[in-house]
Amino acid sequence: MKYAARRSTGSTMPRLCNEQYETFARLYVNGVAGQPKYHGGRAAVAAGYEPTHATKLLDRPEVLARIQELNDAMLKASDITAQRVMLELGRVAFGDVRKVYAADGSLLPVHELDDDAAAVISGFEHEEITKNVKGQKVLDLASGEMVDAVIQVRTRTTKVKRYDKTPALGILAKHFKLVGDEGDGVNALASALADRLNNAHKRAKQEKAE
Hints:
It is a single chain. This protein is of the alpha+beta class. It is 45% helix and 20% strand. The chain has helices at 19-30, 40-46, 54-58, 61-77, 82-94, 115-119, 165-175, 185-209, and strands spanning 5-7, 14-16, 121-139, 146-162. A hairpin with a 6-residue loop joins strand 1 (5-7) and strand 2. The termini are far apart.
């Protein structure tokens, strides 16, 4: 077959017999010269086609299958799996900010944060303020008088920046069929959850009455 896949020497990944198709698939997945990935027009031009030809290439089953293979290999090399993605989404969606603080209210050192707490943090903001305050009386050797000593006091405040829960909740809600595609945002999610809770409450009442 003209477009059947063949295995290249020393590689476990099949290559397409049509080298232009193969080039397009690789450039589509990996990006062109530092440009964003999955841009069909740029990948088509770099493979020797007109940019508008990308649509036709992406309609070809063998090209789509090859793109999927290359994409899967890239995700595997990066240790990205569906289970890991769901785990990280869950951590962001249901993370508890209290986990980043010690019992005395101080911020835990980064190396002491567990995986769940660390996953919800997008960054830190540090602010340092220096103030001059009066200290004890000391002898001014120049004048021979007792004067107030001036002490510099530095105060450092650290603000914890967290990832927004809303996108993660929306993705999980759609994945578990809590809302449909049109149900974006917290309101739709809250409404769907409320309906489920109300229905469960009604069933519990009916079972108790029986």
